[in-house]
């Protein structure tokens, strides 16, 4: 057979160019031509493709000489002309092609009409395909010498079939005459082909078929007459096709079909009536009845109703497709005899109701598609006999209610799709607390793998999804109304790798505990939870969630689930709006102290804002710029709080209250910048004070007792003293020493100024000798 050596020799003579490409060889003639006359692709012992670019049959002289391709199974000639009055076989002989069994000739540039002579010496062919748009008639003796053909395909705009065309083709098994312009079939044309099994006559103009068109075709198993513009059929049109198993009637113009159409076809296995070009309102009574071998039906023809006995006594049907019709309901008896039905497609109809007994006998049903209908509820009985159901799709209906018993018997269900409905799963007679403790209607399906509830009105994560669906792999709760999550909502016990989609809900709060002990029941299966695209309120309640997302906090329960938050941003408060949660600093997370607008219940002082900061368990009271002349009455520190931060900046305070004043005694961080304080005593400073800002007041000195207190209690950079008119004389010596000994505690030490000098001087530049002249001579 043709190989690398032959390819190399061909390139040497320079007439043609050959190159190996993967396992193939490509030959171009003439060599290096931009638009070569011939391009041959050779897969040794398999196929040869000849691509032509001819202007005349004499161009065949440019084919490579002395080529010996050898045995191949298939030859394809594309865009080639017929070789004058010589056989096509002469071209194959010239190329050294031996014993092909398949010839494909595709060209709209034949140069002449095809004749018997062109097919001379091709008697070994098993398959012949001839495709052109330039041929309307073929000679009656065209195929006389091709007695071994088993598969014939002619697509040539043929308008009339010679009556004796197939007389010599006793071995023919398949005829493909689709996409021609045939108007009728000669009577008895199929009578001399005892092995004929497949007859494809699609996309012709066979408008008026009768039983005589199929005389002698008793061996045919499959017939395809789709897209012929047929408006009606005689009731006995298929009477001679007694062994037919598959019939395709699709894409015609049927407005009705006759009763008894398939009465003579008791070996039917599959019937297709798809994409009828005009509405076919209904089908005749018992059209598919008493068919002992019928298994598959595909019916899409804008059907509006069906007779209850349509499939009567056809017990072997396994697949029925009725999708994309206009059905509003179905007769209760429609599937009464379909005990072996496995798959039923009723999608994209207008079904508003289904009888509870519709599936009473379809106990073997595994796949049921009801999506894109108008169903509003699922009763407790409709699926009661579907214990073998594996997949149920009811997406894009108008479902609102699901009976709690609806899935009691469907314990074999593995994939349930209820997305794009209006399901909320709430029980109207139960209060909100009990709603969260009950199971959903899906709790009986312990083997469920997929639960798709996308785009509904669900507000809870139900217990059975977490605790009893141990095989669950995918739970889609996106586009629902879930508003808050806790640890218990994420604690799924699935034994599989579970993905939970909670995107596009209304989740405002995610309250996770600091830690939870997993116990011995923990199964080590990581649950992936997508929380993106929710309106999260970034307040104090989500502290541990934020710490978990930032990777700062890794509690034991973090081994249970992995959270996806790459598109989760804050919706509130305004100062954090649009901030990705991964960038949130935990100390910015706060909650208001008061949630009631009733003044009688308000704990926060009037004119102030109070909030809780869980990061450091602090109560923050902000009375900034409140025009206050005294410290207001403060709330007591809750037992769960450890710190109280009091902001009184930019008021007109003259003095501070006693350190023992209720509420005030709990202050740990006191901010008094911008007031009118002239003095501070130690008994005015709360015992647990660790931060003090008294900048920008009217203080001239601090006594030694106050400084001693600050020395004991203040932390790093926790004191601010600048902006006061400090008197730098001998009385200020303790203050100066304090600033020198505690420079790390004073955040604004470099800005402290002495005002009793002729030129204000930074205190940091002075020594004790500078401020106390009496000691200079010592």
What does this protein look like?
There is one protein chain. This protein is mainly β and 778 residues long. The strands form seven sheets. The protein has a 24-stranded mixed beta sheet. It has a seven-stranded mixed beta sheet with strand order 33-34-35-36-37-38-39, with no helix packed on it. A two-stranded parallel sheet has the order 5-7. A hairpin with a 6-residue loop joins strand 40 and strand 41 (761-762). It is elongated and about 140 Å long. The model has no long low-confidence stretch (mean pLDDT 93). Keywords: Leucine-rich repeat, Repeat, Signal. Residues 603-640 form the LRRNT domain. InterPro entries: Cys-rich_flank_reg_C, Leu-rich_rpt, Leu-rich_rpt_typical-subtyp, LRR_dom_sf, LRR_TM_domain-containing, LRRNT.
Secondary-structure topology with pairs:
Layout (H helix, E strand, L loop, with lengths): L3 H10 L3 E5 L2 E6 L8 E6 L3 E6 L17 E2 L2 E5 L9 H7 L2 E2 L3 E5 L20 E5 L19 E5 L18 E3 L21 E3 L21 E3 L21 E3 L21 E5 L21 E5 L18 E3 L21 E3 L21 E3 L7 E2 L12 E3 L7 E2 L12 E3 L14 H4 L14 E3 L10 H5 L6 E3 L7 E3 H4 L8 E3 L7 E3 L15 E4 L5 E2 L5 H8 L10 E4 L5 E3 L18 E2 L16 E5 L4 E5 L20 E5 L21 E3 L19 E3 L10 H10 L5 E2 L12 H9 L11 E2 L6 E2 L5 H4 L7
Parallel strand pairs: 4-6, 5-7, 6-8, 8-9, 9-10, 10-11, 11-12, 12-13, 13-14, 14-15, 15-16, 16-17, 17-18, 18-19, 19-21, 20-22, 21-23, 23-24, 24-25, 25-27, 26-28, 27-29, 29-31, 30-32, 35-36, 36-37, 37-38, 38-39
Antiparallel strand pairs: 1-2, 2-3, 3-4, 33-34, 34-35, 40-41
Keywords: Leucine-rich repeat, Repeat, Signal
GO cellular component, one term: cell periphery
Organism: Drosophila melanogaster (Fruit fly)
């Amino acid at each position: 057979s043709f190989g690398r050596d032959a390819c190399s020799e061909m390139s040497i003579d320079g007439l043609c160019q050959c190159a190996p490409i993967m396992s193939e060889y490509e030959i171009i003639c003439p060599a290096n031509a931009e638009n070569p006359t011939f391009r041959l692709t050779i897969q040794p012992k398999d196929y040869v493709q000849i691509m032509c670019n001819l202007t005349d049959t004499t161009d065949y002289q440019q084919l490579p000489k002395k080529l010996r391709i050898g045995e191949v199974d298939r030859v394809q000639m594309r865009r080639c002309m017929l070789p004058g009055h010589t056989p096509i076989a002469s071209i194959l002989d010239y190329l050294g092609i031996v014993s092909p069994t398949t010839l494909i000739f595709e060209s709209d540039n034949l140069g002449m009409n095809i004749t018997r002579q062109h097919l001379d010496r091709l008697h070994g062919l098993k398959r012949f395909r001839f495709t052109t748009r330039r041929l309307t008639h073929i000679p009656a003796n065209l195929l006389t010498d091709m007695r071994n053909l088993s598969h014939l395909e002619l697509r040539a705009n043929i308008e009339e079939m010679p009556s004796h065309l197939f007389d010599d083709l006793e071995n023919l098994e398949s005829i493909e005459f689709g996409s021609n312009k045939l108007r009728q079939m000669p009577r008895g044309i199929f009578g001399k082909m005892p092995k004929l099994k497949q007859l494809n006559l699609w996309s012709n103009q066979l408008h008026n078929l009768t039983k005589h068109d199929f005389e002698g075709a008793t061996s045919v198993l499959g017939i395809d007459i789709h897209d012929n513009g047929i408006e009606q059929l005689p009731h006995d049109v298929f009477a001679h096709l007694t062994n037919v198993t598959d019939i395709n009637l699709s894409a015609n113009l049927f407005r009705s079909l006759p009763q008894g159409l398939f009465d003579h076809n008791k070996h039917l296995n599959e019937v297709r009536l798809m994409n009828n070009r005009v509405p076919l309102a209904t089908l005749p009574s018992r059209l598919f009845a008493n068919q002992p071998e019928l298994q598959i039906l595909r019916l899409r023809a804008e059907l509006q109703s069906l007779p209850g006995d349509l499939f009567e006594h056809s017990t072997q049907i396994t697949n029925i497709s009725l999708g994309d019709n206009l059905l509003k309901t179905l007769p209760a008896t429609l599937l009464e005899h379909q005990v072996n039905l496995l798959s039923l497609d009723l999608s994209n109809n207008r079904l508003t109701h289904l009888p509870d007994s519709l599936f009473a006998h379809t106990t073997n049903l595994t796949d049921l598609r009801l999506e894109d209908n108008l169903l509003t509820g699922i009763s407790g009985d409709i699926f009661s006999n579907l214990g073998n159901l594996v997949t149920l799709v009811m997406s894009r209906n108008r479902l609102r209610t699901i009976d709690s018993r609806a899935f009691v018997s469907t314990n074999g269900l593995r994939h349930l799709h209820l997305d794009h409905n209006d399901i909320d799963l709430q029980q109207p007679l139960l209060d909100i607390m009990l709603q969260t403790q009950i199971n959903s209607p899906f709790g009986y399906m312990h083997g469920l793998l997929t639960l798709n509830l996308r785009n509904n009105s669900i507000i809870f994560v139900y217990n059975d999804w977490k605790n009893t669906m141990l095989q669950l792999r995918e739970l889609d709760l996106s586009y629902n109304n879930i508003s808050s999550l806790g640890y218990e909502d994420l604690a799924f016990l699935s034994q599989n790798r579970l993905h939970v989609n909670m995107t596009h809900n209304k989740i405002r709060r995610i309250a996770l505990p600091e830690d939870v002990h997993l116990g011995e029941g923990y199964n080590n299966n990581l649950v992936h939870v997508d929380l993106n695209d929710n309106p999260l309120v970034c307040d104090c309640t989500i502290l541990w969630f934020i710490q978990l997302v930032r990777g700062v906090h890794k509690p034991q329960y973090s081994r249970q689930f992995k959270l996806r938050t790459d598109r989760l941003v804050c919706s509130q408060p305004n100062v954090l709006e649009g901030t990705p949660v991964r960038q949130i600093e935990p100390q910015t997370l706060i909650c208001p102290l008061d949630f009631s607008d009733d003044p009688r219940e308000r704990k926060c002082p009037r004119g102030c804002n109070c909030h809780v900061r869980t990061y450091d368990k602090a109560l923050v009271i902000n009375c900034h710029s409140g025009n206050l002349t005294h410290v207001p009455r403060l709330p007591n520190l809750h037992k769960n709080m450890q710190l109280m931060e009091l902001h009184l900046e930019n008021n007109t305070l003259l003095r501070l209250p006693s350190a023992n004043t209720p509420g005030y005694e709990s202050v740990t961080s006191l901010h008094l910048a911008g007031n009118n304080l002239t003095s501070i005593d130690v008994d005015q400073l709360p015992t647990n004070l660790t931060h003090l800002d008294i900048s920008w007041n009217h203080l001239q000195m601090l006594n030694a007792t106050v400084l001693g207190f600050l020395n004991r209690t203040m932390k790093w950079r926790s004191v601010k003293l600048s902006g006061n008119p400090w008197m730098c004389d001998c009385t200020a010596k303790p203050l100066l020493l304090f600033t020198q000994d505690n420079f790390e505690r004073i955040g604004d030490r470099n800005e402290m100024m002495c005002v009793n000098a002729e030129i204000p001087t930074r205190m940091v530049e002075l020594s004790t000798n500078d401020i106390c002249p009496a000691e200079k001579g010592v």
